[in-house]
Amino acid sequence: MAVSALLLMQRSLLGNVDSAISDSQRQFTGLVSQLGFDSPAETSARSIPLVSRARGLFPNDIIQIEDLVFYDRDWLIEALGPGRTPEQRRENIAYIRRLMDSRRVVIGFLASQPLRLSDAELTQLVESPAGRITLTREIQNAFGSQADTPTTYRVQVTLGPVQLDLSPTDPLALNAPPPSFAITYVGRSLAGVHDTVNTLQSVLALLFLTGLIMAGVGAYVLAGQALRPLRQVRQAAERIGGQTLTERVPVPQTHDEVEALAGSLNAMLDRLESSFEAQRRFTSDASHELRTPVTAISGHASYLLRRTEPSGQQRESLNIIVRESERLTNLIASLLQLARSDSGVVNLTRQPVFSGLFLSEVARELAPLASGQQTALTATGPDIPFEGDPDRLKQVIINLVGNALKAGAQHVTMSSSAEEDGREVRLTVRDDGPGIPAEHLARLFDRFYRVEDSRSRDQGGAGLGLSIARSIVDAHGGRIWLESEVGRGTAAHVQLPVGNVPVLDDDDVP
Ligand SMILES: Nc1ncnc2c1ncn2[C@@H]1O[C@H](COP(=O)(O)OP(=O)(O)O)[C@@H](O)[C@H]1O
Ligand SMILES: [Mg+2]
């Protein structure tokens, strides 16, 4: 686009120059006689004032005229035509050149550096039907403002009859002299055209660049605006999790795909929420329904054991019934707790807890269990105050220590440490048990997931302990994870935010 505009512009400017040159040419040939041109060869001294008159009349042009006297166009065509041998043609050209050199007047530039046509140009001029060719030449304009630097000129060369006046002193002046044949050169500087084209080029380049930048910025802004509702929907969708299924993404009123997408997302969330809710209610209802009969079974079995005289065989069966119903009661309690945490109602009773004290208390509570299987259970670490529900957290740590004991560890160490520049507290339960193969680590927090079914079931775990631990830690805004190496032991970490505990001075600590 820009390039074609530039070319068009250049062509029209050149056209203007050409027509101006043609005008000058016409005027000049019409004026030659009135200017009182000498037959140029006569004496150049006398023609000097005439030259300056012509220069005054054509200030913008450079002019050169070469009088061919009576050798007209037909003669020239004949002399350079195909009828001649190349040798003859060369000779004729040399002759014409001598003629041109001897009868030349130069106006507007250095006479010592006249315009000279090449052989080819001369032939072209002679053979051109209009007797006219246009050339582009570098000419050093001695009279111009930039006298030293050559300027590009467009030069129109015309071959035709000219009424050359004879000298007024010539007696023959009384008679109308016959027209003379001459080559006229009229040239005009292209500096203006070049300047204009260059300026236009810069302007166009600038416009193009500006347009490009504006288009880029515009596209960026538009794309950003078009994508904003999508971004909002995405951010809202990312916030929604299992605990926050009641939330919905905002539906932007854009009447396009984004609005439809947000609508579909919300419809999907509706379905997810109702199926989650159905599952949760089933677990919760089933647990409730099971609680009463299990209590009844265990109560009646205990009654029989206490109040009757069962035989040895019967006593053993009754003992099994009591033990298994206890397990069932625990399982039902766990299921109920999970169902409650699924519906997002884990009610924490937050209060300040001292990590060291807390762990020693758990150690004291579990000491009988640990010593029962010859395991050393210790609690170490600084007393870091933090905010939490001590009963629920005790449940977590008891489960972790219980897992270590069930795994058959010889030493179990509980410790606490400050993390994240004191903003979080970490409770760790480390054991030297058999460890957990890496492929199980990620799935241990799934419900009912156990590494080795038969052994775990024997030892009474249903595989819900870590799920419950995680729901409690989540409710505290913390994280729980396991690190384990087969053959060396396992470390379970619980990391919690310290929360809003009053900062104690050293003297306040007992
Ligand atoms: N410290 C540990 N060492 C070895 N295995 C472990 C340890 N902690 C947990 N596990 C494995 O993870 C399983 C899941 O633990 P958990 O969710 O507490 O269920 P449960 O204790 O009822 O079996 C356990 O059955 C056990 O196989
Ligand atoms: Mg457990």
UniProtKB/TrEMBL annotation:
Membrane topology (UniProt): Multi-pass membrane protein
Task: State which residue ranges cross the membrane.
Answer: 203-223
* Predominant location: membrane
Q: Which residues form the HAMP domain?
A: 224-277
| Record's catalysed reaction(s) | ATP + protein L-histidine = ADP + protein N-phospho-L-histidine
Chain ranges of the Histidine kinase domain:
285-500
Record-linked SMART domains: HAMP, HATPase_c, HisKA
Q: What class of enzyme is it?
A: transferase
Subcellular location per UniProt equals:
Cell membrane
A Pfam match: HATPase_c
Which UniProt keywords are listed?
A: ATP-binding, Cell membrane, Kinase, Membrane, Nucleotide-binding, Phosphoprotein, Transferase, Transmembrane, Transmembrane helix, Two-component regulatory system
Q: Where is the signal peptide?
A: none
User: So which domain of life are we looking at?
Assistant: Bacteria
Can you provide one Gene Ontology molecular function annotated for this UniProt record?
Answer: ATP binding
Q: What is its EC number?
A: 2.7.13.3
According to its record, what are the GO cellular component terms?
plasma membrane
What CDD domains has UniProt attached to this entry? HAMP, HATPase, HisKA
Name this protein carries in UniProt: histidine kinase
